[in-house]
Amino acid sequence: MKPCPETFPYPLIALDETDSTNRYISQLCNELQESVAELTTVTAEFQSAGKGQRGNTWEADKGKNLLFSFVLYPTFLEARRQFILSQIVSLSIKEELDRWSDEITIKWPNDIYWRDKKICGILIENDLSGHFIGRSISGIGININQDEFHSDAPNPVSLKQITGQEHDRYEILSHILKRVQIYYNSLQTEDGSTYTAEIAARYARSLFRRRGFHPYEDADGRFSARLLRVEQDGRFVLEDENGKEREYLFKEVQYIV
Ligand SMILES: O=C(O)CCCC[C@@H]1SC[C@@H]2NC(=O)N[C@@H]21
User: Could you tell me if the ipTM is greater than 0.90?
Assistant: First the structure.
């Protein structure tokens, strides 16, 4: 395993072990306020209490994977536009992983899949300041060099299992952060709305099961539907087999994978 290079292009805190890199960086930001620069990143070789979506835990073998969190202060972004952060983070990861496979997709809202297996999970925690976003912490777990999975997590896969080779985790990390920075900067230019539309279009093209009918489950049970669109605020719009549109917020619908 290669160590973290001294030339890493962003401020980096590389920990051997912590409970959760999201918790670590948010505590650091609470203590030091905005002197923690944007894109400061915390990595860990191991997390004892990695946080997942929906209150789940995130498990990963020690020293094999990418477990990291970084901070942004998108104070120019209205809270109702916060889904764009999820789009730029998931696109940045997908585009990096595209180097090794053309079967990488984004499973709404922001899991990264290879075929029908999960390679990466993303947990974005935003602190709002009035109608705007004050601070955004993106926490990302990517299965990189893990050989096998022991937990009952559904359908995990690692990059090594896909390619048959070990990968340099810090190289992948620096590429992802560069992509995030480019997308993020684009939102702050005069052409921000053009870039927002371009990001939405790329995101739509990258979606898991974006064509055809597939099984889903909501509070009323299972049904078959096709994806119509994802709205700017992140709502997921399906059309069921009776031609009825069904619209969902996060966590209200599950794919049956
Ligand atoms: O449930 C999911 O899919 C999201 C998982 C996010 C896990 C990552 S690992 C690094 C960062 N620190 C955490 O505690 N969680 C995120």
Answer: yes
